[in-house]
Amino acid sequence: GAQRRLKGEVVAEQLERLAGLTPEEAGWDGTVMPAEGDKLPAGQVPSWRTRVQYAVDADGRAGLRRHRSHEIEPIDHCMIAAEGVSELGIERRDWPGMATVEAIAATGSQDRQVILTPRPGARLPIVELDRPVSVMRVGEKDGGVHRVHGRPFVRERADDRIYRVGSGGFWQVHPKAADALVTAVMQGLLPRKGDMALDLYCGVGLFAGALADRVGDQGAVLGIESGKRAVEDARHNLAGFDRVRIEQGKVESVLPRTGIDEVDLIVLDPPRAGAGRKTVQHLSTLGARRIAYVACDPAALARDLGYFRDGGYRVRMLRVFDLFPMTHHVECVAILEPADKGR
In this predicted model, what pLDDT tens digit does every residue of 302-315 receive, in sequence order? Predict the structure, then answer.
């Protein structure tokens, strides 16, 4: 409870300082919602991280870096690792020649994956773990993620749909996060049959899939994503929808080229730096009935909310989630509507 109260204070301060909004003006009651199952008795820690990157010391022992340090502390168990990660037994093996070992345990399937980053010139070890895994490696020259054996992706589930997530691709780390965010976004947007919707910074298509389900055959969804592999995954994940299109490139470059000048709904889930003034100005001209902004940095969110206000939008509702327990991170979903609506 104390962690969530502190996070709530941080969000409130950023809203006030950067957007000039009180919690009441943002339609927020000040609550930071824990993920389902994370309310535990005092002294207990939720095991939530479905992806853990272990650092490897000079002796080949897996551990974690000390806070704001390069020093590696060998460990025998990561307290916040999800059960699927812990049962791989990464900490019980030696990893000679490796710089890092990342363990991934999908929540939508039994898929388990290990991504190895070798030190320069090192050979890959034989990977023998306590559960079957696919193995990937980070290339020394190109920094890309390459298949060693097994599937080059994991299968995740959200909103009753399976999503393929390629190695190195983004998916929410908390097992309940994707569903919590989809629910908040769809409850805020209230999509209707026949709506035209945008999903910006769409990743592997999480929100585009949820929107496509709800706008139906008469509606349409355009997703824009800069990552090549994420675009491939999104196109695969949403291949069953005729009226969904995924474009690759930066939002600020691709969106003006589409010629779209009017939409009903917009979802944006930008990287930590936010969408920025230019993109927000463009979005504000498209006449969207509602906009859902998903943010992992309350400061960037607050700045962009100020730009949306300048573009004629107001915050209808804000929901704040604690999807990163035992860290300083917080996730927000802001729902915006035209400022002149209902006035």
Answer: 999 999 999 999 99
